[in-house]
Amino acid sequence: MKVDLETYSGHPHTDAKASLTARLECGEVVYFSSCPFDLFSQDDLEFLVQQKSGGGFHKNISYDPNHGRTSGYLTFSRQQRRRLRGLLKGFSERATAWLAGLLPRYAQSWRLDRVHYRPEEEATRILRDTARDELLHVDAFPTRPSRGDRILRLFVNLNDCEPRTWVTSETFSFLLERFGRQAGLPHEVEATWPRRLRHGLLGLVQPHYRRRTIYDSFMLRFHHFLKNHQGFQDRGARKFHSFAPGSAWLVFSDGLAHGELRGQFALDHSYFIASETLELPELAPASLLEKACGLSVRHAA
Ligand SMILES: [Fe+2]
After folding, report:
1. Domain for residue 298, yes or no?
2. Are 39 and 48 in contact (CB under 8 A)?
3. Which of 11, 86, 232, 244 is the S-S candidate for 27 at Cβ 3.0 to 4.6 Å?
């Protein structure tokens, strides 16, 4: 398959001759100037841009391909519900088929995460601090623990006339060394019985809590720490990206600090990539964290 690759390097050590998987795992944002798989008819696109997110807990409209469920949108009719679900399902299937062809080593055992549709303008939406996408952060999903797998995300700018603007900064490796201790590295106390008891009780009412590992707890803590660190937000390295209308890009969003500054109407699909299928498993955030704290972090907190 011929792909039109353009790269925005987010990592100083990336070798242009390295494989695509190695480049992604090192922290590159790999850019496709036009989306390499079919998107939507004009009629479907017009329907999508009319949809509104439901607010409240939901930041975006989401589709879970594992259960076929769509959530986070304002509902007007059964027909609208059916059409929206069908479009997001179709996107998930086409994106996944294309990505499996591009990155077969990951597809051997990846877990499909959600599709998110972002109909709001990023520059003007109002969210609580830890949910604000424009602040530099590395990704960690509170309700879907990765348990040490990496988070690969595919984004598509559906907007037909406006670019989507991102900022990227340092890699997880750099940030862990710089801020890991301040954020609170995992230590033995996380495995003590009072914590296990608390964890077990919370797990009764919040199923995702039960599935969190020491790694997931740290990554959530680190995500919030970075968003709240004024010095990093003000003075951290910054590289700006303008993703053209109709373009697509891929990034391991747990491995590179990023923020979404501007843009409306984007789709993304996330995938959990197992350590065994990584080309450079030693660069995975879970491996780096284990090295930094001297503990195994991929088991329950
Ligand atoms: Fe993010």
Report:
1. no
2. no
3. 11
Measured in Å, residue 296 CA sits from the centre of ligand 1 at 25
- Give the CATH number of the domain where residue 64 resides: 2.60.120
28-67 pLDDT, tens digit per residue, is 999 999 999 999 999 999 999 999 988 656 679 999 999 9
Which residues neighbour 41 within 8 Å (Cβ) at sequence distance 6 or greater? none
pTM exceeding 0.85: yes
Whole-number Å distance, alpha carbon 146 to ligand 1 midpoint, is: 14
CA of 121 to the centre of ligand 1 (A): 16
How far is the centre of ligand 1, averaged over its atoms, from the C-alpha of 259 (Å)?
A: 6
**Is residue 28 a part of any domain in this protein?**
yes
Pairing of strands 69-71, 61-64: antiparallel
Cα of 141 vs centre of ligand 1, distance in Å, is: 9
